[in-house]
Amino acid sequence: MPKRKISLLGATGSIGQQTLDLIRKSPNTYSLEACAAAGNNLDAFIQIVEEFQPKLVSTASASKADDLYKSLSLSVKNKIQIIHGEASLKEVAAFPLSDTVILGLVGALGLESALTALNCGKRTIFANKEPLVMAGNLIREALNNNKEAVLIPADSEHVAVHQCLQGQNFDKVNNLYLTASGGPFWNEKNLDFNSIKPAQALNHPTWKMGHKITIDSATLMNKGLEVIEAYSLFEIPYDKIQVLIHPQSLVHSMVEFIDGHVLAQLGPNDMRLVLQYALDYPSRQNNLTDKFLNWKEINKLEFFEPDLEKFKCLKLAYWAGKHAQTYTACLVAADEIAVELFLQEKIKFSQIPDLIEEVLNMHSAQEPKTLEIIQKTDQWAREQAMNLYKTKYI
Amino acid sequence: MPKRKISLLGATGSIGQQTLDLIRKSPNTYSLEACAAAGNNLDAFIQIVEEFQPKLVSTASASKADDLYKSLSLSVKNKIQIIHGEASLKEVAAFPLSDTVILGLVGALGLESALTALNCGKRTIFANKEPLVMAGNLIREALNNNKEAVLIPADSEHVAVHQCLQGQNFDKVNNLYLTASGGPFWNEKNLDFNSIKPAQALNHPTWKMGHKITIDSATLMNKGLEVIEAYSLFEIPYDKIQVLIHPQSLVHSMVEFIDGHVLAQLGPNDMRLVLQYALDYPSRQNNLTDKFLNWKEINKLEFFEPDLEKFKCLKLAYWAGKHAQTYTACLVAADEIAVELFLQEKIKFSQIPDLIEEVLNMHSAQEPKTLEIIQKTDQWAREQAMNLYKTKYI
To answer: Of A168, A174, A265, which is closest to B166 when you measure between CB atoms?
Structure first.
């Protein structure tokens, strides 16, 4: 396997830290060539730059860049270039010395960088799903126009489907089953969704992730976005993409073929295994030796159907996906605002889907032919969500 | 998918009947060109020949051939050729109008036909595993020497592994997990193995199969033979082939890769699905529409390690596989005699492994370079097993 020379977007986040752990474990297989982080966690960022000494470093603002520069040791600051601002993310994605771009940003932020990476012919690893949800058509177009480009998911469910579909004819798929841990509330029969506090929703039963995605897991919006992501990646029709609650989070997803045979991918709950697959595909290596399923300790795997009336976000995501156009971009943006408002305890848990649904209902959808149209939708939906909050929810 | 023109060996057995059911359901996809049956169930054989009118029909003896001929309607008997004797099996396997051979014979009988089918460049479907166990090296050699030939398993476990390995590099396999229902006795803590009667051992919890394989399932010898079969098919070392008891029989087998990712194949317990996969590969079709797993009804999948001290047949099979040479042929032959003696209530259930072990201990193994060497081993082991029975077990 050729060495993967990595541009890492979102270096201090959960995906970033786990990617860096992989690089640390396999310095002969992976290297960090460039990275970006907003700079909100400056100490962690300084430590990363000192340890890995990437050639290009991007941060959110001139002042963050200045803070970072001042904190670095002399030997390191002389070797690296620091750039800043949202546009600098694209420079990291396009960095000529990298052949692999890992998108570990939160929410919609990664879209332009994703398109840049694909247009530069890079292996582009989607650890944040929103770009695929907002602009699946543009991403597929960029992929098709660049023969060198490789698109690989780094969501455990889609890496599972990716593996199940190896060597298979996509036309013979009868159903994709995306599994969901269900988050902390799927089986709470008598819980009042109005009373749920952020701390409860952030208490995910199996995966350790960032705040936004953890709340999305509790509402099942994360699974809804993954349904759209699966459509974008594999072009399997929505009526063949099913969600199953699987509390053990060991079966990461399944593919049922038209002849009744089902392939499932299982593995330990470790995001590093998912990132490693995306980095190494089509090869595999063993540099996380302790990470094997222990069958002696497993004796139960359960599957349940989600309640779409209780978890309205999942229903909304199917609706947006099926109606396509700019509805999916609208969904992503409205959800980001709604989750943020919930985390700030400004709206109730039960109001997250209400707010999103209202924004979707108000949206005049169009074909998402250009990045500009998607960006405008994104901006519009955020503004509408905030307006609705201010006028109806305060 | 081109139409599969089938030679079916073992037409009246369990595999045969299920193959015929598939042909009946998809007459545009499959046709029966030739078939063989011993003729012990003459009524069933007559019915098959009348219904499918294969061009070539083989049966065990001249008298069976005569009985069959006399019982057929005039219009049918004028269209078909009836041949007899063990050597006639090879003619069915080599029949020029067939492109696909299904080996549905019991035990060692199919070996010569298997080699003939591969040497004639046919798609050769191994629904009986013994040839692969006895002479994996000769079968691989025949496959490698005939570019047109295709070898496909039709054991649910190996069809599972076959699917999990599609598009994968075999060098990256960490473990194959062959699942076993465990048969009726794996979890009987206080059962005296000396007291088990054939009727109890024939009461398999999940699969409906022939008598020999059902007893082999109860002793776990069937799983042991499958371990050797897996080695023959995929050339994965024995220390990477594991057996797991899985009472629900829904996960048909699994492959763990070196990076910790596991692929599993699941499906309803229907041997026709397995045969259909073997017939259609690399295509798939849906002609058994009612056969899908219903996830709403499944909520438990359990896995346990087998007790090798209690199920000595499995231990013996690993031993024979690892020691290779003619030990695997010896194992198959001794097991056939032991199971037959048990079915006739001449030896106890607990004596099946004892008898086999004694034959293995007495065997002077050699390289299985030729069919003759394997056939001689087969004959020797049968005689030794009978001698041992007569001298020590009566």
So the answer is: A168
Residues within 8 A of A (CB atoms), B 300-319 only: 300-305
**What CATH topology corresponds to A4-153?**
Rossmann fold (3.40.50)
Our measurement of the distance from residue B17's CA atom to the centroid of its chain's CA atoms, rounded to an integer in Å, reads 15
Q: What confidence score (pLDDT) does residue B207 get?
A: 66
- Check if B275 contacts A (Cβ < 8 Å): no
Q: State pTM to two decimals.
A: 0.94
Q: What is the pLDDT of residue B394?
A: 81
Per-residue burial over B234-262, b if 16 or more Cβ lie within 10 Å, else e, is bebebebbbbbbbbbbbbbbbbbbbbbbb
Predicted confidence band of residue B260 (pLDDT cuts 50, 70, 90) = very high
pLDDT range class, residue B9, cuts 50, 70, 90: very high
User: Any chain A CB within 8 A of the CB of B196?
Assistant: no
Decide if A281 touches B, using CB distance below 8 A.
no
Architecture in CATH for domain A324-394 = Orthogonal Bundle (1.10)
User: Which among A256, A259, A302 has CB closest to B277?
Assistant: A259
Q: Do A254 and B266 touch (CB under 8 A)?
A: yes
Query: Quick check: B166 and A163 CB within 8 A?
Result: no
Consecutive sets of 10 residues in chain A, 394 residues long: mean pLDDT of each? 96 96 96 96 97 98 97 95 96 98 89 96 95 96 97 96 97 96 90 91 77 93 97 97 93 96 94 96 88 79 92 98 97 97 96 98 96 96 97 88
Q: Where are the domains of chain A?
A: 4-153, 164-269+293-315, 324-394
Is B268 an interface residue toward A (CB < 8 Å)? Answer: yes
Tell me if A4-153 shares its fold with A324-394. no
pLDDT of residue A290: 78
pLDDT digits (tens, 9 = 90+) for B62-72: 999 999 999 99
Q: What integer pLDDT is reported at residue B68 of this predicted model? A: 96
Cβ of residue B1 closer than 8 Å to a chain A Cβ: no
Q: For residue B300, what pLDDT is reported? A: 78
Report strand pairing: A262-266 vs B30-36: unpaired
Q: Which chain B residues touch A295 with a CB distance below 8 Å?
A: 177, 244, 303, 305
In the stretch 132-171 of chain A, residues with CB closer than 8 A to chain B read 159, 163-164, 166-169
